[in-house]
């Protein structure tokens, strides 16, 4: 059975007491995934295409993928069990022997970092998207507040 998915993007990152809140969604809805602060910094760097002195782990993985002719097809945030989100990383290897698709279980934060590095599409399962609380209003208020602070 093919699971229906909805395209999403990273809409914002907010430092929090125990890590960071990663706002993920589209024009209809935004939800939050809590991530480690270091992972939020990495994702932010990839979003800004910020230069780094040395390759980070996700850079290294990207270079290994490239060396073996592997592309990141997409990532999918699949479900929420308790307070833990689950995700899948879908990779494609294509060479003279043919094409192979590999789907891996991975932390959503790793999937989102890899997708951001590779500029690959991000999705959330329709079932999960309908389940999560809409945080669009909070994100809008944060953006308004940061706009006011930069205007001062």
Number of strands: 7
Instruction: Tell me the strand percentage band.
Output: 35-45%
- Rounded Rg: 16 Å
Overall, the morphology is: globular
CATH superfamily: Bifunctional nuclease domain
- Architecture, according to CATH? Roll
* CATH class designation: Alpha Beta
Please count the helical segments: 5
Compute the separation of the termini in Å. Answer: 54 Å
CATH topology: Bifunctional nuclease domain
Largest sheet: 7 strands, mixed
Which structural class is indicated by helix and strand composition? alpha+beta
Total of domains: 1
Helix content: 25-40%
Concise overview:
The protein has helices at residues 37-48, 57-67, 108-118, 126-131, 136-151, and strands spanning 5-16, 19-25, 30-35, 70-81, 84-95, 98-106, 122-125. With 152 residues, it is α+β, with helices and mostly antiparallel strands. β2 (19-25) and β3 (30-35) form a beta hairpin.
How would you characterize the overall build of this protein?
- By secondary structure, the chain is α+β, with helices and mostly antiparallel strands.
- The protein has one domain: Roll (Bifunctional nuclease domain), CATH 3.10.690.
- Helix content is 37%, strand content 41%.
- It is built from 5 helices and 7 strands.
- α1 (37-48) packs parallel to α3.
- The longest helix is centred in the last third of the chain and has 16 residues, at 136-151.
- The mean pLDDT is 90.
């Amino acid at each position: 059975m093919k699971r229906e998915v909805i395209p999403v993007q990273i809409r914002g990152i907010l430092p929090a007491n125990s890590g960071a809140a990663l706002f993920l969604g589209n024009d209809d809805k935004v939800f939050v995934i809590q991530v480690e602060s270091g992972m939020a910094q990495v994702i932010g760097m990839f979003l800004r295409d910020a230069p780094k002195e040395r390759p980070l782990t996700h850079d290294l993985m990207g270079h290994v993928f490239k060396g073996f002719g592997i592309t990141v097809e997409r990532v999918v945030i699949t479900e929420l069990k308790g307070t833990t989100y689950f995700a899948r990383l879908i990779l494609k290897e294509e060479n003279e022997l043919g094409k192979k698709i590999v789907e891996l279980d991975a932390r959503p934060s790793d999937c989102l970092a890899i997708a951001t590095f590779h500029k690959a599409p991000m999705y959330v399962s329709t079932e999960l998207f309908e389940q999560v609380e809409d945080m669009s209003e909070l994100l809008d208020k944060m953006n308004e507040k940061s706009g006011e602070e930069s205007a001062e």
